[in-house]
Amino acid sequence: MQTALPSSLSAVDPCRCPLCGQPNACGNEVARATGQAQPPCWCTTVTFTSELLARVPLEAQRQACICAACARAAAG
Question: What is the pLDDT of residue 10?
């Protein structure tokens, strides 16, 4: 008999922002999914504050990118 995984162990969707759940437009994930080279991801030119990064759930850290909208909102 299979049981459901606790939410903390469920798979993290690397194509969705771990803060708001919206698509994150990660260029690295697009390349991985399509097999087509992409230009550098938008996130490579952005500085994420330590406060913003601390809001990412532990299970999603280094698993899914924060989206541009959440990054902009944190920047003020």
Answer: 57
Please choose, from the candidates 39, 37, 48, 51, the residue with its C-alpha nearest in 3D space to the C-alpha of residue 71.
Answer: 48
Which residues is 23 bridged to in the sheet? 16
The residue ranges of every structural domain in the chain are: 25-75
Q: What is the distance between the alpha carbons of residues 58 and 56, in angstroms, rounded to a whole number?
A: 6
Q: For the segment 7-52, what is each residue's pLDDT rounded down to a tens digit?
A: 444 589 999 999 999 999 888 888 988 999 989 888 888 889 999 9
Q: What pTM, to 2 d.p., does this model score? A: 0.75
CA 59 to chain centre: 11
List, in order, residues 6 or more apart from 60 with CB less than 8 Å away: 12, 18
Number of continuous H segments (helices) and E segments (strands) in the chain: 3, 0
